[in-house]
C-alpha cells in the first residue's frame, strides 16, 4: 500500500512551509 504512505509526507511538507521558512519547518517536523 504505497499510495497512502506517499500521500502522507506530501501534505505535511506544504503545511509548515506555507506558514514559516525552512528553519521553522525543521522544528515542526520534529514535533510531528
From TrEMBL:
<protein>
    <submittedName>
        <fullName>Uncharacterized protein</fullName>
    </submittedName>
</protein>
<feature type="region of interest" description="Disordered">
    <location>
        <begin position="1"/>
        <end position="32"/>
    </location>
</feature>
Amino acid at each position: 500500500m504505497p499510495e497512502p504512505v506517499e500521500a502522507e509526507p506530501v501534505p505535511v511538507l506544504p503545511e509548515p512551509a506555507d506558514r514559516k521558512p525552512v528553519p521553522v519547518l525543521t522544528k515542526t517536523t520534529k514535533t510531528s
